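Q: Hi! First time doing this. I have a protein sequence and I read that you can turn it into a structure. Is that right? Here it is:
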Amino acid sequence: QVQLVESGGGLVQPGGSLRLSCVSSGFTFSRFAMNWYRRPPGKERELVASISSGGGSTNYADSVKGRFTISRDNAKNTVYLQMNSLKPEDTAVYYCNFIDYWGKGTLVTVSS
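A: Yes, that's right. Below is the predicted 3D structure, encoded as structure tokens:
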């Protein structure tokens, strides 16, 4: 069955960096666009970044443009989210997604 397993979250100071990973299985990863979403505390889930099946096209929420980079390695069935210049408002549970499938999420906390 389809599995999406996120990792790489944690506690980081403002201005710091983290790289999230999402290892996928149970489907032909290279055929699908992939997304990262996040759910900040007490708020609705929001789309953070998307990447096309081949990796040639990416899109970002305005709030993360210039700071976050989505990428993928189709040989490893993995999608990444490099997060730089992190801000307290980036604190959220981050989820990997495609179509109607979701991982369980990884918590990112940005705090001094």
